[in-house]
Design brief:
Helix content is 41%, strand content 14%. The chain is an alpha/beta fold. Helix 7 links the parallel strand 7 and strand 8. It is globular and about 60 Å long.
Amino acid sequence: MALRPGGGGVQTYARELLSELVPLIGASAKLSATVQQDAIGELPPAMEPISRPVVAGVRRAAWAMVPISGTDLFHSLDVDIPLRQRGLTVSTFHDMSVFDVPWAFSKFRATGERQLLSMALRKADVIIAVSDFTAERIKALSGRDAVVTPLAPAPWATVPTDAEVADVRGRLGLPERFVLQVGTIEPRKDVALVADACRELDIPILLAGSGSTGPDAPEHSVGLGYVATEDLPALYSAATAVAYSSRYEGFGLPPLEAMACGGAVVASAVGALPDFADNGAVLVKTHDKDSWVRALRSVIDDADFNRTLRSAAPGVAARSTWTRTAELTVDSYRSAGLSV
């Protein structure tokens, strides 16, 4: 149910993990996946779909509670464990945000998701976390240990050619110098903080993603709206700096993908970023405008440092692979007693 066409970090995790699991255990076990009808084409050919209707919200949560019969292992890729599910149960937790930053959600959503997460924490035989940070939060909130399986860049996240960058610059009408932030406009992402810093630095800030052209976008920002995935590498590369000012992340996949594309990344030191950024990104440890102004200025005004950052970033990002994520996942199955 976690797999959707396109989508963000959770969908990338589901798509890439399933693809990598096939060569690891496909010869020793029958593999199937519950999936909404419009996402069946996202599954690897060797994986049998268990079709579900296209639903969202409460109806999606209700379908996620329907048990699957005849399984030795049920792995929920986004928390939910069906009621009375038999066999070994594994649940992946991407973050604990509804506990840690409930103000970022509606009261209804926060209450409902806290109940789902709490139930999975009680029921799952094995808990997987996508970062050490999320594992630490799980331990603090529930007392349970989690197996950490870090994420990796999506396959599309590669360094673009000069021609591809020039093409995207022309089609999107990009300015010569600009700061870019990609993602939804929501309180947790705090895009306004970067917008304020850019205004002080007198450099345009461009936003791409849901809400970037809407009323909640910060004043003085330029919204690009939805940008096709195939254009993101060139957009990241074209930006003078790529910013991620999130207050909270379970992992922080978009900055890692921007690094893989050769972007000059400046990001909040949240989630797994302190674990993977190394010398491939500038991390901002204090969430205030002055800190962001200093960090962005170091990348915007120092051409040599900007080039050094861009040169290092793809190699740093390449240390993270979905093959390794899958191997750690299969190790967790075996440690729990499953023969695969």
